[in-house]
Amino acid sequence: MSASGKLASLRLPPLPTVGELIKLYKLRAEKQLSQNFLLDLRLTDKIVRQAGSLRDAHVCEVGPGPGGLTRSILNAGVMDLLVVEKDSRFIPGLKLLSEAAPGRLRIVHGDILTYRMDRGFPVDISKPWEGDPPNLHVIGNLPFNVSTPLIIKWMENIANRTGPFAYGRTRLTLTFQKEVAERLTASTGSKQRSRLSIMAQYLCTVHNCFTIPGRAFVPKPKVDVGVVHLTPLVQPQIQQPFRLVERVVRNIFQFRRKHCHKGVEKLFPAACRIELTQEMMQKADVDPTLRPTELTIPQIRDLVNAYAHICSIEPSLLSYEFREELRMKHLARQGNTPVDTFMDTPTSPLQPC
Ligand code: SAM
Q1: What value does the mean pLDDT take over residues 217-245?
Q2: What is residue 142's predicted lDDT score, i.e. its pLDDT?
Q3: For a pocket test of ligand 1, which of 30, 47, 62, 153 has the largest count of ligand atoms closer than 8 A to its C-beta?
Q4: Ligand 1 near 113 CB (within 6 A)
């Protein structure tokens, strides 16, 4: 069979429209789960095209809901589509799709934040990290309330080659609130440049594909939506442990409008703050009067390397948290607990940028 004949044979048979399914199963959008549906299949086809060729691919779709994007992914000729949906009300409609695409759609009723994607696909689709990406894609019209923690989690997975990246440099095609999409792709000097820009761009090539106006969704969200494509880099631009990079970048960007040394200072306890900040800035050869948004990734790499060097001489610095020191001082002022600036505080969990 010719390639186009094979693709045609994989197209879905006539089905009730997504709108009809929503009515049939009484699928009212739940605000709590950030449910905004895409019913226009030309638009879902356009999102799917951003992933590149999906012929014979394995795909994980995040939050399929009533299945509009799911239909476009199936029509693109994938061999195996695994969907992860938290809301049980969508499962019957997805089962109907699964029957229309025999053997090609697997449904997981679960939470993408805890789902073990490293177990979801056959091991033999893996590709060496240094080679081409595997024929595995993650695609999703993400719920807004999940998208930022999820992308930070996946960034850490990329750094550690775990989760979806246990198979190699798995590509991601995802929707975000427009402002988040802009931050992910913001270049040096731009107003949107943020912690998220650095964390994404030191690990991936990031492409802001196009914007979908809020009015294209049902119900209409208050914001527009950006479609972003990410491909993990063979060689991360910063070669230090993810948590260390995250710690330095978080501190630098906590004072976005001030000179970057202000944030760097907060990596160190008061007693050695001035001295170690100077040492770090000099070692990295970065102008301390640059704003965080003006720093290039190589400059941030040099700052992270300088910090790693300082911490290799004084490892206790790794457990210092400025915010924790402030909290302790505040409690002490209220007479609750003594101040101990060198307390061995745990690193704070990753927070949205
Ligand atoms: N993909 C559908 C579309 O484009 O019309 C629905 C998109 S809607 C913005 C987000 C979907 O993600 C909903 O179906 C919602 O139930 C689901 N969802 C929300 N949180 C989730 C989670 N933690 N894990 C998996 N699915 C989730």
Answers
A1: 95
A2: 82
A3: 62
A4: yes
Per 3-state DSSP, the chain is made up of helix, strand and coil in percentages (nearest 5) of 45, 15, 40
**pLDDT band at residue 352 under the 50/70/90 scheme:** very low
For 176, the token pair is 């975000």
Higher local confidence (pLDDT), 331 or 232: 232
For ligand 1, say whether the CB of 145 is within 6 Å of any of its atoms. Answer: no
Q: How is 138-196 classified by DSSP, letter by letter?
A: EEE---HHHHHHHHHHHHHHHHHT-GGGGGSS-EEEEEEEHHHHHHHHPPTT-TT--HH
Residue 327 to residue 160: CA distance in whole angstroms:
32
pLDDT of residue 353: 33
H or E segment at 211? strand 204-212
CA of 266 to the centre of ligand 1 (A): 38
Q: Give pLDDT tens digits for 93-135.
A: 999 999 999 999 999 999 999 999 999 999 999 999 999 999 9
User: Would you call the peptide bond into 269 cis, given omega within 30 degrees of 0 as the criterion?
Assistant: no
> Is it true that domain 3-232 has CATH number 3.40.50.150?
yes
Q: What is the mean pLDDT of residues 296-317?
A: 97
Residue range 179-192: mean pLDDT, rounded: 96
Between the CA of 34 and the centroid of ligand 1 the distance, in Å, is 7
Residue 164 Cα to ligand 1 middle (Å)? 18
Nearest CA to ligand 1 atom 16: 87
Query: Domain ranges in the chain?
Result: 3-232, 242-344
Torsion, Cα 180 181 187 189, to 10 degrees, reads -40
Can you name the CATH fold of 242-344?
Answer: Helicase, Ruva Protein; domain 3 (1.10.8)
For atom 22 of ligand 1, the residue with the nearest CA is 111
Which of 59-73, 151-165, 185-199, 211-225 shows the lowest per-residue confidence on average (mean pLDDT)?
A: 211-225
How far apart, in whole angstroms, are the C-alpha atoms of residue 87 and residue 100?
Answer: 21
